[in-house]
Structure formats: structure tokens, C-alpha cells
Amino acid sequence: MELTKEQEAMLNGEQGEVVERSFRLLVRLGEIYGARNMIPVGSVQVAGVSYKSIGDPGLEFLEDYARLGAKVRVLTYLNPSGMDMKSWRSLGFPEDFAAKQMRIMRAFKKMGIVTTATCTPYLCGNLPRFGEHIAWSESSAVAFANSVIGARTNREGGPSALAAAICGVTPNYGLHLDENRKPQMVINVEAELRYGSDYGALGYQVGKLVKNKIPYFRGLKDADTDQLKALGAAMAASGAVALYHVEGLTPEASLVETKGLETVNISSKDLEETYAKLNTGKDPDIAVLGCPHASLKEIALLAGKLEGKRLKKPIWICTSRLVKQAADLMGYTKRIESAGGKVVADTCMVVSPLEDMGYKTTAVDSGKAANYLPGFCKQSVVFGNLDELIGRLER
Amino acid sequence: MKGRTISPGTAEGEAIVSKEPIGFYGGIDAKTGRVIEKGHPLEGQSVTGKILVFPCGKGSTVGSYVIYGLKKNGVAPAAIVNKETETIVATGVILAGIPCVDGIDIDQIRSGERLRVKADEGLVEKI
Predict the structure, then answer these.
(1) pLDDT at position A353, please?
(2) Considering only residues 10 to 69 of chain B, which have any Cβ-Cβ distance to chain A shorter than 8 Å?
């Protein structure tokens, strides 16, 4: 691989052991994937934050790296943690879990990483520009950044993203290159989509269909960023979609060619079948929204719908700490709490120990959550649109 | 045998060979260095101080951290030799500083043979 003088110095250990190992990791991964050089990154987002995901081996690794003086060189954010870092006790998160989770966050902070833990960094201060090279981990954020913003990132693992943050560069391969960003299949959406869950169901189905290919959507006329967030997250979970294009909506759609590509039609009936498939449970113990983390607009919408209601089962809406602060400021949090709900920050249902907190059936409106909850949290799933879910919780 | 450097360093030791891939997370105990995966051909054996030979990694990406933990706890293999090192093992051995070579015809190696691994040059020799 072609390296600059400064990069040679990093590899030769002139900038210390942590930089040397981090750079060596980037070089090796670059060689495995055929990168010719390294490119500077504008920002990083690191996965592998929840104690539930990384366990003691990950915790010990991060503490060692912090102790050895690891420091990030670019704006670096974290994926969701295993719990709400402020209200974990009142939400019922286990004490020993909390202690380990706090050690993980301290190690990241020592490295200079912003410990706002979210899968939507682009909604709270880590927003790349079109064409900017970044190294992000979280699969839904990768899909959003590549597709909706037009920034460029591969799906990084936790350690490779951390190494990119420590060295300020990433190997130049995959989605960093023009030739790998072309669509490979056209998805013609005939179904009418209204709710976020409709986009989640569509994403779930298309992800299964295209696996790791790049889909090009036609027929999605007026999806907003929340709906595109839901679509990309579901495709990244059920398949490995890291980039998609939407005719008329995403920035690279008009720059790419679709001639001669296989076309698949998605009808309302297809979506109904997906809804049925994702429903594995009947009576929810809890509903959890905000997968990916809710925007302020989504929290405001929920607060409006819960106005004057009193739910029989709890509802959580997960978001980032910064968006929660805005929701507090606007009185949305209070309105949701008055109805028996919670606005939960820093964490999400997929990486939290739901199964250890006594929940067996969880209601969601997210295709991504519906995909992961049965395996990761041993939950039966009720999948439906926001109005249906609220109706279920009132009964 | 000549392969590719994954992580530099030199080591000598007794080979322990698995024909099956190894998933380190849930597969090897980071505290003891023993293989704990049920039904794995190496179940119950220790990899500590040995040249661990297997085709490739498998399973959770947390496996990288387990490899690091093995080294930190002083129970790591002396070196790793693969047919093809994928990213989980590559990440683990580089973070931990365990010598590792891939691109080796591992069918030529039997458990119990003594090997010398010169990972900087991508070399694996029988002694």
C-alpha cells in the first residue's frame, strides 16, 4: 500500500504503541480488501459500546487502550450504550451491568471520544457533508450517511473504527470509491406507504431480497428523513445494505445508471405479508419505539398522540441524550410520562438487557427492531404502526 | 511454508491443529486459554503457548477482544497460522501483538509437531 511519510512513521511506532497497532490494523484490513492507499476521515462513529455486546473482553481492551494513552484525532461519536446513563436505576437496569457499562464509557471519554451514545449521530452534531470520507460502524447510520447524505463509509467493525479515529485515516476501498456505489437492482414500490413501520416493513423485505447489493428505489415520492432512516435501518439489519438510492430524493440517484438492471415490484400485498411474518407475539408487555433513535419530530408526534391518554402497558421511546434534552425543554417528555411512557436516552432495545428485565413480548414499529429482538433479546414481537401500537397498550 | 504476514513477530512451539474454524467468543475461555465450544474438535484442550493452526475464524466480532484477552491474561497461543485470516482474527492478533501468518496449506501440519513461525517474513517451518 502507498503510504505517506507521516503514515510510515505511524506504522513504525514513532508515534507510540497504540498508534502503531491501530495503523497496522488499518493496513492489514486495507490489504485484505485491496486498498491502494489511506484517506483522511472527517469523522468516526464507533460500535461495540454496550457491555451486553462486548462483555469483559471488550471492556478490558478499551480500558487498556485508554491507559496506554490512546487519543482520537477526529470527531468521534459512540453507538448506543447498554442503558440510559442517567436514569438506568429507575428504568430497572441491573446494578452490576451498570457498573461495567460506566467503566466502558469512562474509557471512551479518556480517549477523547464524545460519549453521546447514539445510532443517529447525524441528528445531534456529527453531520458529514456530501462526498466526505468517514469511518462509521453502526449499520443504520452507515446506510443513512452513504445514502441520504452522500458521505462515504464502509461498514466498520468496532476496533477498525476506533483505529481510524486514533490514526485519522481509513483504507481506501469499497464504498469510498465511485465504482462501488452504483445500483445493482431496481425496486419499484407500488405500495402506498404512510407510517414509519411501512418503511420498516419495506426495508425488511428488500434487505432479505438484495442482501449486500445496492438497491435503487422508484415510487417513494415524499419520504422524509425519519422514514428514510427507518427504511435504511431495516435493510441493513435483514440484509447488509450499506447504500441505497431513491429516485428524486437521495443525492447520488441522478448520478447513477439503472439501465439493464433487474427490477422487482413491491405491492401492498407484499407488505401485508411482511407485517404478518414479523408478528411473532400477541400481547405486548411493553412497546419500544426509537429504533433507530427517534428524532425530535418523532418524539413530538408521539407526545401529541398520547395527549390525555393513560396507557395500561409502558411505552419507551429511545433517543440520543441531546434530542432528549430538547424534548424535555419542549414538554414532550412530560406529556409522554403523564401517559405512562418514558423517553429513554443513550441506549436502545437491541443492545439493552430487555430479557433480564422481565419482558417477554415487545411491540415495535421498527423493521430493524423486529428483525433483531427475537435473537438478541429473546422477545416475541408485535410489529405494527404507531396508532395500532398505542391502541394495543390502552386495552 | 511461505504465506503472508498478518501480524509480525517470531515464535516457536508445538502445533495444535483444528480442521474446523474457531469462533473465539464463546469458543475459547480468555481466562484459561481452553477451548470451551461444545462439540469442537479441540474442546477441552489448551491453546496456551502453542502454535494454533486452523483454517479461518468464525462467529461474533467480539472474538477480536477475546484474542486480546488471551494475550493479556498470559494464556494466548504463541502464534496463529491460518489458511485464510478473516477480519475478526486479523483484528485480534494485531491488537494483541500475537504473530500470525496466513496463506498456509494447513493440511501439511499435524498436532504435536514443533513449528517455528517467522511472521515478519510470512514463514512457517517445521523443526
Answers:
(1) 79
(2) 25, 30, 61-62, 64-66, 68-69
